[in-house]
Each structure stands twice: as C-alpha cells, then as structure tokens.
C-alpha cells in the first residue's frame, strides 16, 4: 500500500499543504469545518505522519507572549516580574514585546508571537489601539489571551486590573481633605480603560465633596507623557487658566515625572503653589524633591494573577465556564508633595 | 521509483531523524562532517524534501533574541529601545528575555531562543555567570552573538561597551577636585567586565592625584544592589570604618538609589556629610533630593550599534574578517549631590 502524504491530502481536498498540515496539528488557525474535513479524510486514507511531523504535532511550546506598551516604566517592569515569577516555576518561557503604544507594532508583535506558536498571550493595550480585530480573530481560533491593566471592553476573556476607580477616588479625596480647591487631572488618551476608570473616580470624589467638575482642569495626553512637549503644553494650558489649579493628580509614571520636571524648570514650588499626587509605581518616590505622594498598583500581584489565569486557560480550556475580571486594590502613600507644608 | 524519506536517510546513516532534518536545513546545530555526510547521501539517493520541509528550510526567522539582566533598570530599557529602533526598521523582531542575574535562567533563555531559531543573540551577561560554555558552543556552531555592556573577555566576537574606565576616572576626579579625601566605591561582583573597568578608572584617578588606594573603601555587592540588605550592610560597614568615607561613587542604578535610601533613612545629609556620584541612567536624577550627579552611558546608541553589528553578522557572515570592540563615551553631569554646598 502506498503511503499517503500531506501533499496528496491537499490535492484531493483542494487545499494548500500548509492548511492541511496545520489542520492535522489541530491548529487554532484553521477553522473547525476544515479541520474536520482534513482529519476525516486523513483517517479514511490511513494517513500516518512522519516522525518530523510528529515532533511538530505537540503544539504546546511552553511559552507565553507578553505585549506591553513599554518596559521603561516601573509599573510594567514589575508586572513582568510578577508574570515571570509564576511562569518560570511552572515551566513556561516568557517572551516580552513592547508595542511602544503603537497599534501597528502591537499587531506586528501579535502576528510574530503567533507564528512562533506561543501557547497564549498576556496583553496590556497600546494607547493608540482602537481596533481589536487582531486579538478577536486569534481568540475565535482558540488562542488563550488574558488582558491586564489596559483592557478592552469588547472582548470577553479573563482580565486583571487595578481598582482604578477607588485609587483615583482616594487620591482626589486626599487632595480635597488637604484643603485643595482646584484639582486638575492629567491623564492618558480617553479611550483607554484606565483613563475612563480613573476619570470616573476623580469625578465622583469631586461630586461627593460638592466641588463642581470643570472640564478645563482635565487634559488628555495622546502619548501618555512620552512626548515631553505634549506633556508640557498640557500643563502650560492649565497653569494659564484664569484660575490655575492648586493641585494636580497625574495618571501615570511618565505624566507624573514629566509634570514634576516642568514645575522644577519653571520654579513652581511643590506643594506650596501646587500639590501633586501621582498614579505611579516609580521606585524612588520617597527620594524625590519633595517626596511624592503616590497611588501604587499591585503590579507584581496583577502579573501573577494574570499569568495564573492564562496558564489555566492553556492547560484546562474545558474547565473555563465563565470569564473573570479581577480588580486589585491600589495603595495611597501620602508624602510631602501633597500636604500643606514641606517635609525636608 | 520509491520516494526516500528523512527516516530512510536516518536509518541508513545511523543518525536520528532530527539530526538528519537539521543537517538538511544546514542548521548550525549540526557539525560540518555530519552535514556533509547527510547531504551527500541525500543527493545520491535523490532525496526531495516535501513542501512542508521546504517551508522550514529557510532558517532565517528575522528575529533577534536579547538577554539582559533585568528590564526594571533605565540603562537596560534604553539599551533595548536602541536595539528595537534599528531592528524594527530592518524588519527584525526583537524577543526580550531577563536573566534576573541568574546563570541558570541565562542558560534556559539561551536554549529557548535557540530552539525557536532566532537569527542571532544580543547578550549582557548575568552577574552570576562565570561559565560561558552555553554561548561558546552556539558560536562554534555558527550562531552570531554580540555582547554589550557586560561582556566576556574569553569570547571573540563584536562587543559594544561604554568607556567605563574613563567614566569612572572622571567621576572620581570630580569628587577629588570637589575637595573629597576619602572616596568609597560601591560596585557589582568583581568578575563582571564593568566592575573591573570601573574599578580601574577609580584607582587610576586616586593614583594620579596622590591619594592612596584603600581596599576597605571598596565594596562588591554580589546581587548588584537588588538585595536591599546586601546594599545596606555594605554601606554600614563603610560608615563604621574608623575614618568613614566623605564621598561615595556607586557603580549602578540600583546601588545608587539603594545608597540614597540608606542615607535618607539614617538622616545622613548629602552632600554635606557625604557626597555621591552614581554610574546610572536613572531618568529622574534631577528630580531627586538632592539632584544626583551622574555618569550616564549612551545606552540608546550602544543598543543601536550592537544590533547593527549583529545584523551585519547575520546577513553577511563572510564579510567579517575581524571582530570589533566599540567603546562609547560616557557623560558626567554634575548636580548638587556631589558639590560643596546644597543647591535647593
């Protein structure tokens, strides 16, 4: 009896050899009907894969792809350390990619990781990503994806986030209770989940304390603080208002340090002239001048929980009856940058 | 005529199918004699690879593996941004791994990257790596590797480093010229290239200005500052000397901020009681209290030059007649932490 090859199957079914090969490997890239067609035909014809094909057959690579906006950010580097601390012990390699907040790079990274057959993805969305098709298609094909921090509303899967609303509420409340009246909010692009959640917490605190919300005190930075001029322009605009803010609540690492740099260059005294609270995981908050009041996210723990959820999806896909969104508590640490008098 | 398979070749030559397969792909993992044996036999027997094998045949993955100690360090994250800025435009994916300064993880990362068939590696050695066999073996098999920052003496390839000697000399000289007499040096493990180069610059400056070298003023931190207790113990020891230092030159990001934290906790005034200069690329040096004098490495440029050298090795291996070690200039920026009086 002659041996039937993948090429023969492809010819008989009018498919490409690559499609047949992937269908036989049960790849998520091939739709279920095609898989069924190929597998049934292969079985009927008594197809036997060769040893090399067999070595390719186990599609588990024991590796996880991580796509984050940038690694030069304490929040994300701590997140990755959390991911690696769990993954390494469970025998998974962690492959790290930066999107640099670019949609195109995020798509390119995703495609590359999939072509390298990672078992699953952990993603924090790029600030310029509004189209999610590249993730939706993969998930429909069965690739497990867990989102963390910057998560999409429109995709159903496990998500791990900080409790941005409460963190932001507490920061704003603290500024109000410290006697500040005109609290500005410098934040990321409006379509990011973290932006809307933090904005909502800020607004709710103002409302609860009877302070009217003023849109001119909120500035959105499209590049999240990575472009210094954008940062500076937003701060300038606020400082030039008829009633400039007496406090500023900044929504990220870069926006916070960028803001402090502008104040330093302009000789604006913190906290005497303006108080500042940063939503940031910067490691040297207490070494800054003045020491910085921060809302810290449990980045390490977020990474750990996200990778645990992902590995569960990879190893026991059938056991997932519903998806979770876990929201982890932030921590407000009050330092001199936001209180009435300087502490030197 | 019956088709000959890889299995048949393997059986005839008493090799594994995986060896035959890789030999036919001209993989660097197979030694030249075996390749010749396999290829000649395959040709004689009129072996023709199937289309799937063909698609695997082009061993170029257009991806570069990067292994660095840790990403939560401005120097390394800037290095990676330099690497990515060039690689992305030349169509290469950059796959990032952290060794966490562990030899075992560095070996595991290396093996994983090779199994995923990257075209080349960029490596900055883990601080606990003393055995280089995992890299030597790959290079002997033809995998291009370029080292940067923490480079091995015993491997001949392209290397890109900062001019650590001069950077360190200038920092020490600056402290001497500022009137400091007892200058301590807090540094990484002695067997790292950066440690010996920086130590040499420090010693030469002392010598040139007639200050005797005192071994008790030099402390090596095995974990490079990542373990706070180690950091703190080293500083304590120096402060408890009969003649404690009046200045400290720290050799890395972590050692520098760790040192400043200890001084802050102990209420030791900088620069009045002790001056500090850090060999660090920290982004907020001027926002610290006091603003920090730094020796900065051209991390972005180091990454760019290293990846250019690597891609040249990947794409034109025959054009490399000799290996280069490029040494890039550092920049000393003087701020309040090291000068006679505080600038507030």
Automatic annotation (TrEMBL), chains A, B:
Keywords: DNA-binding, Isomerase, Transcription, Transcription regulation
Keyword Transcription regulation found: yes
SMART domains listed in its UniProt record: HTH_LACI (SM00354)
Name this polypeptide is given: Transcriptional regulator, LacI family
Coiled-coil segments: none
Pfam families membership: LacI, Peripla_BP_3
Entry-linked PANTHER family: HTH-TYPE TRANSCRIPTIONAL REGULATOR GALS (PTHR30146:SF109), LACI-RELATED TRANSCRIPTIONAL REPRESSOR (PTHR30146)
EC code: 5.1.1.1
Domain HTH lacI-type: 4-58
Cited Gene3D superfamilies: 3.40.50.2300, lambda repressor-like DNA-binding domains
Organism encoding this protein: Dyadobacter fermentans (strain ATCC 700827 / DSM 18053 / CIP 107007 / KCTC 52180 / NS114)
Molecular function terms, GO-annotated: alanine racemase activity; DNA-binding transcription factor activity; transcription cis-regulatory region binding
């Amino acid at each position: 009896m002659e041996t039937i090859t993948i090429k023969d199957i492809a010819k008989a079914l009018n498919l490409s050899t690559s499609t047949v090969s992937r269908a036989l490997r049960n790849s998520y890239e091939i739709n279920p009907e095609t898989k069924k067609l190929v597998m049934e035909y292969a079985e009927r014809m008594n197809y036997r894969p060769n040893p090399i094909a067999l070595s390719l057959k186990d599609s588990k690579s024991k590796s996880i792809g991580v796509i984050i906006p940038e690694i030069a950010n304490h929040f994300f580097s701590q997140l990755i350390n959390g991911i690696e601390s769990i993954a390494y012990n469970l025998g998974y390699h962690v492959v790290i990619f930066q999107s640099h907040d670019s949609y195109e790079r995020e798509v390119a990274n995703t495609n590359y990781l999939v072509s390298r057959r990672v078992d699953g993805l952990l993603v924090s969305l790029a600030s310029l990503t509004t189209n999610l098709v590249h993730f939706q298609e993969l998930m429909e094909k069965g690739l497990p994806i867990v989102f963390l921090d910057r998560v999409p509303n429109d995709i159903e899967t496990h998500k791990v986030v900080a409790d941005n609303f409460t963190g932001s509420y507490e920061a704003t409340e603290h500024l109000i209770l410290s006697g500040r009246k005109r609290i500005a909010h410098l934040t990321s692009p409006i379509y990011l989940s973290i932006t809307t959640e933090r904005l909502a917490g800020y607004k709710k605190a103002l409302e609860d304390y009877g302070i009217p919300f003023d849109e001119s005190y909120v500035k959105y930075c499209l590049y999240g603080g990575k472009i210094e001029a954008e940062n500076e322009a937003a701060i300038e605009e606020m400082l030039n208002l008829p009633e400039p803010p007496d406090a500023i609540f900044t929504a990220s690492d870069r926006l916070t340090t960028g803001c402090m740099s502008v104040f330093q260059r302009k000789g604006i005294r913190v906290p005497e002239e303006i108080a500042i609270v940063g939503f940031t995981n910067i490691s040297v908050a207490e070494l800054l001048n003045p020491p910085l009041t921060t809302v810290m996210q449990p980045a390490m723990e977020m990474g750990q929980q996200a990778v645990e959820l992902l590995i569960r999806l990879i190893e026991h896909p059938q056991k997932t009856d519903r998806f979770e969104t876990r929201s982890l508590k932030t921590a407000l640490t009050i330092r001199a940058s936001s209180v009435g008098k300087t502490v030197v």
